[in-house]
Amino acid sequence: MKKIALLGSTGSIGTQTLEIVREQKDLAIVALAAGKNVSLLEEQIREFKPKMAVLWEERDAADLRERVKDIPVTVLSGMDGLLEIAVMPEAEILVTAIVGMLGIRPTIAAIEAGKTIALANKETLVTAGHIIMPLARECKAPILPVDSEHSAIFQSLNGERGNHIHKILLTASGGPFRGKKREELGNIRVEDALNHPNWSMGRKITIDSATMVNKGLEVMEAKWLFDVELNQIQVVVHPQSVIHSMVEYEDGAVMAQLGTPDMRLPIQYALYYPRRRSLSGKRLDFFQLTSLTFEEPDLETFPGLRLAFTAMERGGNIPTAYNAANEKAVSLFLNGRIPFLQIPEIIQACMEHCEYESEPKVEKILETEAEVYAFIESRW
Fold it and tell me: Where are the beta strands (DSSP E) in the chain?
């Protein structure tokens, strides 16, 4: 019985992780953490019976304690609670599916405790990859990617140890506005941006897909995960979302991972790695595929992707500024306070405003985030 601690249990990745636990009988949940969805977390506690549960705010945790007082579960709150979950002795694998830079400190703690990390939190590597990856190597803590594209790259690297990677081909669906020009996006509504053609995801990541900032974050993550140079990563728009990413080797051979757009596949692969297990759901039918097409990304219409390469080239705390600015800008857009096209404009302004530091520690990363938030609040 493999024992799992799950950060972000009420979000999209979290609930799909629990679907897998529900379907497979040799996985157990020992801890759950959520943001503020008290009712759903209560339901999850009653079904999966973890030993520990965490909510971000103490008032929500107090509410949950009262609701589940008939169940033997310890309810904690805040960062202290997340850190306690990250190192609890019973957990073998930590699934980090919380959104934002909240994932950095629990991930570091879990690595130092020798846990296996199933990483679904992009921001951890985007902002702190220079800290996380060397630490994971030092502590011999495996980091297994849950993101569909990075899982595809990881699977395409299997059996190729020692063979030189020429290029990583990171695929992108193009989002709901693929093929449109910038002038057509001036009056985009929130519901338009949330209408992804292929994937069912949370609100924030769906907006990130619409701006292609999500792909920019994935470029940064791939650089750290697979120890490649930025010029070895090529983004390829693939509207059908059948090929989830590819690796080209020095001899020209290209290995790809294909499948239906189902996030449960990469989640389950990380939970059981290196074994594969049966998974319910739709299978890829090649006779139903009329075509697979590929396009170059439109960096004029979607400057968020271009800015990601710029942020990574500059390095230091600039990727943190990029990420923090995007988080805040997406929140403003979802709340109707800025237009869609202003998201990358805010990102660029924050990158230019950021005071550069070449090797930021965790404290400086969090300080940069706070400074970016304050800068945005003072202007927008």
Answer: 2-7, 27-34, 52-55, 74-77, 93-96, 116-119, 143-145, 165-172, 233-237, 243-249, 254-258
